[in-house]
Amino acid sequence: MLKVRVIPCMLFNGFNLVKTIQFNQLRNLGSPIQMARVYNSRNVDELIFLDLMATVENRPPAFAVIKDIIEECFMPLTVGGGIHSLEDVDQLMKIGADKISINSEALKNPSIIGQIVKKYGSQVLVIAIDAKLIDGQYFVFRDRGRQNTGKKVVDWIKEVETLGAGEIFLNSIDRDGMMSGYDIDLINQAVQVSSIPIIACGGAGKVQDIIDAVIKGQANAVSLASMFHYSGHTANSIKERMAQAGIPVRLIKK
């Protein structure tokens, strides 16, 4: 079994980092540059930076901010938000992004998946999926969780995998910021139809939630934000507990 990754997720509103609850109630968390420095000094496996408002406001990625983060970042960085074209991807790769995450644009224009994969390879492309449970089924939402696409999550996962996506960033709208545990059923359904890695996001409140996402949900990686901001845990303290539970992780020896 490959090592399970623990990945902080930084949410950006165009000015500062924010924290959301069920995709609403933005709370200011300060400078993304400073937070990148903090994560860089700790044992995080990767970092995800998502510009929440770029697509909603129909603006391009915050290239200058992203470039500053990359200069502080010595771990793989995934960048998403406001990516509307292959030219946007070219610019992000040029300034040093390791992976690209697309969400709404892939739903509006699935051909962009093939364009990115053809030029940069599947390993560069992460498809972000915002999922919500409605009447017992999980549906894909776009535009920061504002619009139900009518697509079932499992069907969209199969479609983007066929088109060449390298990973899935699976975010539960219902669990976002609630710190009540990951949606294990959602993760299970995704894993069962996918042969590419599933990054579970939304709901981590304690270490056992992360362990459950991996052991019960079979997630390949976990992404979280609130636990790092509010619980006092570091990536290493989380991974030490994961290792004790028999989960393979990358640890830095003290």
Automatic annotation (TrEMBL):
<comment type="subunit">
    <text>Heterodimer of HisH and HisF.</text>
</comment>
<dbReference type="Pfam" id="PF00977">
    <property type="entry name" value="His_biosynth"/>
</dbReference>
<dbReference type="InterPro" id="IPR011060">
    <property type="entry name" value="RibuloseP-bd_barrel"/>
</dbReference>
<dbReference type="InterPro" id="IPR013785">
    <property type="entry name" value="Aldolase_TIM"/>
</dbReference>
<keyword id="KW-0028">Amino-acid biosynthesis</keyword>
<dbReference type="InterPro" id="IPR004651">
    <property type="entry name" value="HisF"/>
</dbReference>
<keyword id="KW-0456">Lyase</keyword>
<dbReference type="GO" id="GO:0000105">
    <property type="term" value="P:L-histidine biosynthetic process"/>
</dbReference>
<dbReference type="InterPro" id="IPR050064">
    <property type="entry name" value="IGPS_HisA/HisF"/>
</dbReference>
<dbReference type="InterPro" id="IPR006062">
    <property type="entry name" value="His_biosynth"/>
</dbReference>
<comment type="pathway">
    <text>Amino-acid biosynthesis; L-histidine biosynthesis; L-histidine from 5-phospho-alpha-D-ribose 1-diphosphate: step 5/9.</text>
</comment>
<keyword id="KW-0368">Histidine biosynthesis</keyword>
<protein>
    <recommendedName>
        <fullName>imidazole glycerol-phosphate synthase</fullName>
        <ecNumber>4.3.2.10</ecNumber>
    </recommendedName>
</protein>
<comment type="function">
    <text>IGPS catalyzes the conversion of PRFAR and glutamine to IGP, AICAR and glutamate. The HisF subunit catalyzes the cyclization activity that produces IGP and AICAR from PRFAR using the ammonia provided by the HisH subunit.</text>
</comment>
<comment type="similarity">
    <text>Belongs to the HisA/HisF family.</text>
</comment>
<dbReference type="GO" id="GO:0016829">
    <property type="term" value="F:lyase activity"/>
</dbReference>
<dbReference type="GO" id="GO:0000107">
    <property type="term" value="F:imidazoleglycerol-phosphate synthase activity"/>
</dbReference>
